[in-house]
Amino acid sequence: MRLLLIGCTGFIGRELVPQLLSQGHQLTVVSRNGAESFLTDLPSDLLIKLKINPADQDSWQKGALLEALAKAEGVINLAGEPIAEKRWTSTHCLEIQNSRVESTKGLITAMGHLRRPPRVLINASAIGYYGTSQDNDFTEESQSGRDFLANLCKRWEATAAKKPRSTRLIVFRIGIVLGPDGGALGKMLPVFKAGLGGPIGNGLQWMSWVHRTDLCQMIQQALINKSWTGVFNAVAPNPVSMSKFAGDLGKSLGRPSLLSVPGPILKLILGDGAKVVLEGQQVRSIRLQKIGYKFQYPELNKALVAIANPDQRTNTI
Q1: Looking at beta carbons, which pairs linking 96-99 to residues 24 or more positions away fall under 8 Å?
Q2: pLDDT confidence of residue 270
Q3: Is residue 109 part of a domain?
Q4: Taking the alpha carbons of 281, 202, 256, 15 in that order, is the dihedral positive or negative?
Q5: What is the sign of the dihedral through the CA atoms of 256, 259, 263 and 268?
Q6: Alpha-carbon distance 211 to 252, whole Å?
Q7: 147-158, pLDDT tens digit by residue?
Q8: What is the pLDDT of residues 197-207, one digit of tens each?
Q9: Is 170 in contact with 226 (CB distance < 8 Å)?
Q10: Which residue in 35, 60, 243, 273 has the fewest CB atoms around it within 10 Å?
């Protein structure tokens, strides 16, 4: 299948892109800076790289991006600035919104002008759609929250929903993605390996997570299986508290996990952005269960052991 990939040059893309190529898909990968080193080692006969900002509406009106979209049979749109890496200034909040909503708006508008739009669109969203809670248990049928991230996700999903009628839409509300070379865990591993790790905040907040390999396999199945349609919570079936997460991570590394990070310190660093880390949500996926998706990593301890000890991965699946 000929695919257009947007926002797939970061943490998730480092695993997703090689997997898609191994399945024989032809890829056009959109990148804002063109500096992703992992792309240079991939087969050039199946891979085209475009250095374009997808949030720039003019980019969708003409030129290489529109040409690639016109040829695409499917689109994977994971575009978005990282949410919990900088202080939430008004400027950064605008960047967070534009990188998601504006890039998706340009994509959907351009798709609407095509005589033959792509057959399938996989669009990212996030479990931030539900807001935060220590008590509620959220599924795809739950209502949205009312905070900044919830409103952002609602706008993001509403924009994607305006796709052409002939295009099958799958929206993944993605949880905390775990892998060894990036994301939240990538930042935590060096600290825990040094024996300085521990829970963040009070440790009671929920962490609804998914191993990157499972997320990539969900995306691959959704591309080719027409029974995948609508919204799916892209989370493993067993969310955990921050305290348990820290404890399991310490055990997987053979290190203590006793030194907690006080919430006020994180708030000083990230401002309102600390909310993403200090307040969680317990999210499960009824739809993945109904569709029969089989997780490689349904349990956190096995996922962490596989990430922390790659040589043992084959023994944990």
Answers
A1: 96/152, 97/152, 97/155, 98/55, 99/55
A2: 63
A3: yes
A4: positive
A5: negative
A6: 15
A7: 999 999 999 999
A8: 888 888 999 99
A9: no
A10: 35
Whether 2 has a pLDDT exceeding 50, the answer reads yes
Beta-sheet pairing, 240-241 with 206-207: antiparallel
Higher-pLDDT residue of 186 and 303 is 303
Contact between 285 and 140 under an 8 Å Cβ cutoff? The reply is: yes
Q: Supply the angle between the helices 103-112 and 64-71 in degrees, to the nearest 10.
A: 60
CA-nearest of 142, 133, 147 to 173 is: 142
Task: Provide the token pair at 62.
Answer: 């003409």
Give the angle 71-73-79 at the CA atoms, nearest 5°: 90
Q: Are 282 and 137 in contact (CB under 8 A)?
A: yes
CATH number of the domain residue 19 falls in:
3.40.50.720
**Does residue 33 form part of some domain?**
yes
Quote the domain boundaries for residue 58.
2-178+209-237
Which two tokens mark 315? 């023994």
Which pLDDT does position 314 carry in this prediction?
A: 42
Q: State how far the Cα of 43 lies from the Cα of 34, in Å rounded to an integer.
A: 16
Q: 14 — alpha (psi -120 to 50), left (phi > 0) or beta?
A: alpha
Number of domains into which the chain is organized: 1
Residue 277: inside a domain = no
Within a 13 Å sphere around the CA of 203, how many CA atoms are in the beta-carbon half?
14
At 313, the amino acid letter reads R
Highest mean predicted confidence (pLDDT) among 62-66, 180-184, 218-222, 258-262: 218-222
d(CA 164, CA 85): 34
pTM over 0.90: yes
Domain membership of residue 242 (yes or no) is no
